Amino acid sequence: DAKTTQPNSMESNEEEPVHLPCNHSTISGTDYIHWYRQLPSQGPEYVIHGLTSNVNNRMASLAIAEDRKSSTLILHRATLRDAAVYYCIQGGANNLFFGTGTRLTVIP
Amino acid sequence: GAVVSQHPSRVICKSGTSVKIECRSLDFQATTMFWYRQFPKKSLMLMATSNEGSKATYEQGVEKDKFLINHASLTLSTLTVTSAHPEDSSFYICSASYPRQGSYEQYFGPGTRLTVT
Questions:
Q1: Is the dihedral of CA B99, B104, B110, B115 positive or negative?
Q2: pLDDT score recorded for residue B101
């Protein structure tokens, strides 16, 4: 079952940074934090994952709170192609249980 | 990046018939594949985990005799919806774990939209 909580929707202006929050207060010591995004009528796309330390890749950054009960996905410069539903998932590599996610709208 | 394909992308079938959906990992071997279902404006729901050469593990509430899963090779898993009913109409999505040690990425297919009339 999904264990994370995220805002239902967020808006961002194009070319501005976006911070998408996620609460995972029941996370265990071995659970990873995964982020995926889904465009309409497509399968989800991997964005980033982390365990304890902050992570960066070409798509985004992941900032993880010290107590690991929350995290923030950071898109450094939102584009129209970043408009999607973003899912934050806690767990192992397998058996991803998706919550309702955050629908990100990017305003041109 | 790793590519996962699904076939067909859309299918319409009559109530009572069976439909097979294929999921292929195109450029890597996937020992584990997953099947999800997504209803309109809802999130993905994990249906089952499919391991190559063994029986699939179904999530609670998913009927294994209705949703038959076969993972006969390292690049192909199939989901057969048997005796389909209109309530089985949904978006079915598969994914595969990338077989690199320490990798936690799953690669998803583009989905198959099933409509049962």
A1: positive
A2: 62
What's the length of chain B? 117
Q: How big is the A-B interface in CB pairs under 8 Å? A: 57
CA of B88 to nearest chain A CA: how many angstroms apart?
17
B32 and A98 within 8 Å at the Cβ level: the answer is no
Dihedral of CA atoms B107, A39, A99, B50 in degrees, nearest 10, equals -30
Cβ atoms of B9 and B31 closer than 8 Å: no
Are residues A44 and B107 in contact, defined by beta-carbon separation less than 8 angstroms? no
* Residue A8 CB neighbour total at 10 angstroms: 9
Question: A47: nearest CA in chain B?
Answer: B105
Q: Let me know the angle formed at the C-alpha of A101 by A100 and A103, rounded to the nearest 5 degrees.
A: 120
pLDDT digits (tens, 9 = 90+) for A56-106: 999 999 999 999 999 999 999 999 999 999 999 988 767 788 889 999 999
Do the Cβ atoms of B16 and B81 come closer than 8 Å?
Answer: no
Inter-chain residue contact B93 with A94, CB threshold 8 Å: no
CB within 8 A of A86, min separation 6: which ones?
A: A6, A20, A35, A36, A37, A47, A73, A101, A102, A104
Residue that the structure tokens 């249980």 belong to: A97
Q: Do A46 and B105 touch (CB under 8 A)?
A: yes
Q: Determine the residue of chain A that is closest to B34 in CA distance.
A: A95
Which phi and psi angles does A107 have, rounded to 5°? -95, 125
